[in-house]
């Protein structure tokens, strides 16, 4: 086909300077309309007031490696509090010569997490890896075997305790949550109402009331010969709490499965347990992975509540730094440091969950 | 033939009958739960006897003999435990109510900012959401509490950002109108105004349905609700005397003092929950297709009407259920007050437990109070959902 446009006039006109490139971007995204222009200018004015002093406080006037006394002289941030107390904040009261053990356990956990990130690895094997991993992490922390010096759990603290409470809690709560979700969807009245009462009751009360229960009521519930330590009891409370939230998420997944799947499973002669195990749950659990990551994030944040029953998790070890007279004024700096740790963990998990959601959605389409 | 079939079916071993099997499962489950419950109960009895702890709620009548920092009602250490706990409940309700109002305002604001076409505004909103969602609320509370104590000056060097407002490490003190008999009548006028507006709205809706004539409800409602109390105020001679805080000794006297505990708790709860509310609002607004706006405009509705009649009813259906659960979360999170020393219900109950040793009653009361909050909220939610549910063909 012949072109109807003469070749000479094929000269391409560039768009005007104000419509393309950086200028165009600024015009379209910052100064489109009066209202937005005013907003942009206001924000820039406020930023001009706030950001330079903040940078001055954080970087220019700050000290990074001094003693606590030196910090009182300066105007900026006293970041020295972080390196000087890093061991206490991260590992808490774990014996210093055995510190490699929680470190190794944390590296194992991160390795497991990185391995589980890949969807290709989502097989039954992964479950065994997790069980094995968590079990060996517990052994590593507790010791008493293979020539490891036993370390009583009262000394477990800092970041390893936070990670243990949240991840071990999540893994232990998941089966319970699935059972509760199945129970809530059961046709049997007795079982269903039992599960509904449990789920609604737990979701209706704050975690802190369960932690109170674990710290002051569990000892009353058990015979006096049987006595768990405080960390285990708090772990039990976190498991019971998380399970109710997992149950609701899993129930959403079960409801999303097409009714035909249930009927098909029945029609080929599978009984209830077989059809759940082989047909329904594998599909339902895959759907609920993104919201489950959400629950993991809240569990991770919620473990900080054990501060209230005087366990030394990451938040409490950093608080205990402030009890040292040398570092008393450094609460802002140490809290910012701890907030950064929490933020990095939660942000990575939440952005992973969002990406996963998108990927899984595309896959089913 | 059919009777033969029935006979055949009757011969089936009862284990293969789904109905009977179901009953067996349920009986077994309930039996197990009952046995475990009984076991725990006997343990509790044995333990309580061994430690000689009293049982029952008799302690509620006894003298509490502890002070509570701030209270909405008259309270002293000579009052009973019951009254102390009531103070706690009221404090919980106070911080939750103020918190919820501020959270909704801030959350809606940030949610809309997140969708702004201004790149800066939208990025700042999303940075806010990420930052506050991903840091534990307890850490935020500690941070704000420490900020109050370490960064803000003592009353003698109080910051004075606005006239009559003083920021110190003993709290934020600000002036309020001095007590006057007009205030009670103004409150009454406000309530009367609300009632009038309720009936006005109903009348206007009915009239529009009958005759098609519209009535400017929004403006007249605003006029009545603001105007009536204002009228009462003028009738009482427009008292303008203010109760302004003054430095006396080491602290301020007069005015209203927002304690550091309350301030930090409110700040933390509002900033944390608003991040979640913002995401809910954003999702709600985004869930309405653009076609809805265009269709509404094409039948000649004005922008305000499009918002009120088409967009909001649909967006609210998406927004309200998660929003109420966030409000409930805020109420439950207010129990973290115990960590920074604000006397909410959990803190007061905790003190009572420590003094009486009656842990079971104390924890049971904590759970009952929060369960009441959440069950009444979910009852409201069910009612609301029924009211706004889509009537499907």
Summarize the largest interface: chains and residue counts: A-B, 52 and 57 residues
Name the helix and strand elements of chain B from N-terminus to C-terminus, one letter apiece: HHHHHEEEEHHEEEEHHHHHH
The CATH architecture of the largest domain in chain B can be given as Orthogonal Bundle
Q: Helical element count of chain A?
A: 15
The level 1 CATH classification of the domain at 172-364 in chain A is Mainly Alpha
CATH homologous superfamily caption of the domain at 172-364 in chain A: MetI-like
Q: Using the alpha-carbon principal axes, give the shape of chain A.
A: globular
Structural class of chain B: alpha+beta
Explain this structure:
The complex is a heterodimer of chains A (365) and B (393). Chain A has 365 residues and is mainly alpha-helical. Chain A has a domain at 172-364: MetI-like fold (Orthogonal Bundle). Chain A has 15 helices and no strands. Chain A has helices at residues 21-29, 34-60, 68-73, 81-91, 100-117, 124-142, 159-184, 189-204, 207-221, 230-256, 259-267, 272-287, 289-302, 314-321, 331-364. In chain A, helix 7 (159-184) packs antiparallel against helix 8 (189-204) and helix 10 (230-256) runs antiparallel to helix 13 (289-302). Chain A starts with 20 loop residues before the first helix and ends with a helix. With 393 residues, chain B is an alpha+beta fold. Chain B has 3 domains: 2-50; 81-173 and 258-388, MetI-like (MetI-like fold), CATH 1.10.3720.10; 179-240. Chain B has 13 helices and 8 strands. Chain B has helices at residues 2-11, 18-50, 81-114, 119-133, 137-150, 182-211, 217-235, 260-286, 290-298, 303-333, 337-340, 345-356, 359-388, and strands at 159-162, 165-168, 171-174, 176-177, 242-243, 246-248, 251-253, 256-258. Chain B has a 4-stranded antiparallel beta sheet. In chain B, strands 4-5 form a two-stranded antiparallel ribbon. Chain B has a two-stranded antiparallel sheet with strand order 6-7. In chain B, helix 3 (81-114) packs antiparallel against helix 4, helix 4 (119-133) packs across helix 8 (260-286) and helix 12 packs antiparallel against helix 13. The longest helix of chain B is centred in the first third of the chain and has 34 residues, at 81-114. Chain B is globular, with a radius of gyration of 29 Å. The mean pLDDT of chain B is 84. Classes of the chains: A mainly alpha (365), B alpha+beta (393).
């Amino acid at each position: 086909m012949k072109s109807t446009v003469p070749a000479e006039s094929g000269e391409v006109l560039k768009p005007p300077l104000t419509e393309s490139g950086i200028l165009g971007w600024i015009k379209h995204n910052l100064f489109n309309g009066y209202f937005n222009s005013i907003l942009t200018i206001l924000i820039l004015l406020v930023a001009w007031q706030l950001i330079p002093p903040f940078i001055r406080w954080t970087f220019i006037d700050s000290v990074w490696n001094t003693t606590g006394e030196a910090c009182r002289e300066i105007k900026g941030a006293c970041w020295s509090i972080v390196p000087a107390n890093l061991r206490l904040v991260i590992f808490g009261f774990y014996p210093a010569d055995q510190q490699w053990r929680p470190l190794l356990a944390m590296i194992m956990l991160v390795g497991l997490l990185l391995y589980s990130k890949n969807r290709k690895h989502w097989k039954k094997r992964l479950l065994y890896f997790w069980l094995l991993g968590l079990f060996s992490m517990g052994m590593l922390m507790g010791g008493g075997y293979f020539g490891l010096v036993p370390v009583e759990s009262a000394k477990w603290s800092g970041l390893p305790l936070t990670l243990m409470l949240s991840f071990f809690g999540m893994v232990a709560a998941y089966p319970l949550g699935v059972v509760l979700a199945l129970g809530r969807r059961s046709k049997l009245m007795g079982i269903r109402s039992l599960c509904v009462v449990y789920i609604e009751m737990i979701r209706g009360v704050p975690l802190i009331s369960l932690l109170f229960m674990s710290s002051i009521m569990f000892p009353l519930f058990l015979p006096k010969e049987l006595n768990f330590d405080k960390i285990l009891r708090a772990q039990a409370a976190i498991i019971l709490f998380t399970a109710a939230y997992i149950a609701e998420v899993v129930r959403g997944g079960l409801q999303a499965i097409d009714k035909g799947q249930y009927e098909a499973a029945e029609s080929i002669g599978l009984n209830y347990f077989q059809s759940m195990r082989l047909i329904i749950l594998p599909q339902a659990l895959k759907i609920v992975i993104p919201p489950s990551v959400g629950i993991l994030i809240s569990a991770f944040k919620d473990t900080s509540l054990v501060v209230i029953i005087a366990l030394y998790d990451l938040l409490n070890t950093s608080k205990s730094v402030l009890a040292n007279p040398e570092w008393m004024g450094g609460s802002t700096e140490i809290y910012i440091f701890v907030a950064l740790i929490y933020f990095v963990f939660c942000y990575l998990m939440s952005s992973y969950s969002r990406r996963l959601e998108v990927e899984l959605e595309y896959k089913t389409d | 033939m059919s009777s033969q079939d029935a006979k055949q079916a009757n011969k089936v071993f009862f284990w293969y009958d789904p109905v009977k099997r179901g009953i067996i499962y349920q009986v077994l489950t309930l039996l197990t739960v009952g046995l475990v419950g009984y076991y725990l109960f006997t343990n509790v009895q044995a333990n309580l006897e061994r430690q000689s702890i009293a049982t029952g709620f008799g302690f509620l009548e006894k003298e509490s003999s502890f002070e509570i920092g701030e209270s909405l009602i008259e309270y002293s250490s000579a009052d009973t435990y019951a009254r102390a706990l009531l103070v706690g409940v009221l404090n919980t309700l106070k911080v939750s109510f103020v918190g919820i109002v501020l959270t909704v305002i801030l959350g809606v604001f940030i949610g809309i900012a997140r969708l702004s076409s201004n790149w800066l505004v939208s990025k700042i909103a999303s940075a806010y959401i990420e930052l506050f969602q991903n840091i534990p609320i307890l850490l935020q509370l500690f941070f704000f509490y420490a900020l109050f104590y370490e960064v803000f000056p003592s009353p003698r060097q109080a910051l004075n950002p606005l006239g009559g407002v003083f920021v110190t490490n003993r709290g934020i003190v600000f002036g309020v109108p001095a007590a006057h008999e007009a205030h009670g009548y103004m409150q009454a006028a406000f309530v009367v105004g609300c009632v009038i507006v309720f009936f006005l709205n109903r009348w206007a809706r009915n009239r529009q349905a009958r005759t098609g004539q519209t009535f400017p409800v929004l403006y007249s409602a605003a006029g009545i609700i603001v105007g009536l109390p204002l009228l009462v105020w003028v009738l009482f001679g427009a008292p303008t005397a203010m109760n302004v805080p003054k430095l006396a000794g080491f602290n301020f006297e007069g005015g209203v003092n927002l304690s550091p505990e309350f301030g930090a708790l409110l700040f933390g709860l509002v900033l944390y929950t608003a991040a979640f509310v913002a995401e809910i609002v954003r999702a709600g607004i985004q869930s309405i297709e653009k076609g809805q706006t265009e269709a509404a405009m094409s039948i000649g509705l004005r922008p305000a009407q499009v918002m009120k009649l088409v967009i909001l009813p649909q967006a609210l259906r998406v927004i309200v259920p998660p929003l109420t659960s966030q409000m409930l979360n805020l109420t439950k999170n207010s129990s973290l007050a115990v960590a920074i020393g604000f006397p909410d219900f959990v803190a007061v109950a905790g003190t009572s437990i420590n003094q009486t040793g009656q842990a079971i009653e104390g924890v049971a009361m904590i759970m009952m109070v929060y369960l009441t909050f959440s069950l009444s909220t979910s009852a409201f939610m069910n009612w609301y959902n029924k009211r706004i549910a889509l009537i499907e063909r």
